[in-house]
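ok so I'm stuck.
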Amino acid sequence: MKYLNIIIILLFTANLKAQSYPPPAGQEGSTAIPADSDIFLSWATGINLERGFVDISNPDFEDQGSNRASFGEAEDALGTPTNTPVSFGDAGVAILTFDTPIANGSGFDFAVFENAFSDTFLELALVEVSSDGENYFRFPAHSETQTETQVGGFGAVDARFINNLAGKYRALFGTPFDLSDLDEDPLLDKNNITHVKLIDVVGSIDPEFASFDAFGNAINDPFPTPFFSGGFDLDAIGVINQQTLSLREEELNSMTIYPNPTADFIQIKTTQQIQRIDVYSRAGRLVKQFENSVDKDRFDVSDLPVGMYLIKVSTDRKSSLLKLIKT
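replied:
not stuck anymore, here's the structure
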C-alpha cells in the first residue's frame, strides 16, 4: 500500500506539471482568436519566404518534382485568413512585414494563423520579431510534449502542452502573441515591430535535426511529413495593436478606463471624441457594443460575467485597445 500511495502521488505531481497552457479552440480557457473577429486592425502586407526541404533527414527526397516544399504561393499568407496557406517545408523561414508597425498594447498584440485540419494535427513554428529588420528576438517557446517517442507524420499534439509557438490552434483560429513576453532590450522597440519571422519547427526528436524551445527541450511535432505541403503552413498574421503614427506620444497614453476593475460601469478618459465602444471576450468574440457614444460619459457593463475583456475604443482619429477587469 505504501508503494501504491507513492505511485499515486508521483502521477498526481506529473499531471500538475503537464497541461500548463490553454486548450484547443472552442474550449473554456482557450486563447484562440477566430479569423472573423473584429479585434484585428490590419494584416501582413509583405513576405519574404525561404522554403525548406520536403524531408530534412533525407534532403534528396522529392515530391511533386522538388526536394523543397512547393504548396501555395508566398502571397497566399498576406491579408485575411482564407485557409489557402503557403507551406514552409522543414526549417523553412518567412519574414512578414506590415504597412503600420505592430505595437505593444494591452493584452495580445498579433496572432498567427495556420491551417491545421484538426485540434491535434499541429505543425508548429517559432516566432521572432524585429523593429529594424536586422535584430530579431524570439518568443520564449515551451513544449511539454514528451520526447521519448517520435510523433509520427500524422500523429497528434496536445495544444495544452505548448506555448508561444505558432500553429497551436486549428485552421481559421489565430494563435496570439503578447510582446510583453519578450525581455527588454535596447535593440528592440516593442512599439515599432516592423518584421515578424516564422521558423518551421522540425518536429524530429533526433538532436541532429530537432528544433528546441527556450528551455532546451526538443519540440516534438509530426515528423516526417515528406510532402510538397509539409512543414508549417502560414495562412495569415493579424495585427491587434498597432502603432499610431499621427499622434504625439503623450496623446497615445491619454486614453484610460476607470474604474478598473469594475462591477457596474466604466468611464473613459480621453481628449478625443468617442464614436463607438466594442467589448470583446478574451477569445476575441464581440460580447457588447456601445454605438453613438459621443456624448456619453458612463457605460454600463454590469451584465457582463466576471473576467477579463478587451475594450476597443473608436474615436474620430484612431482605435485603441484597452484591458478591462470585470468583478
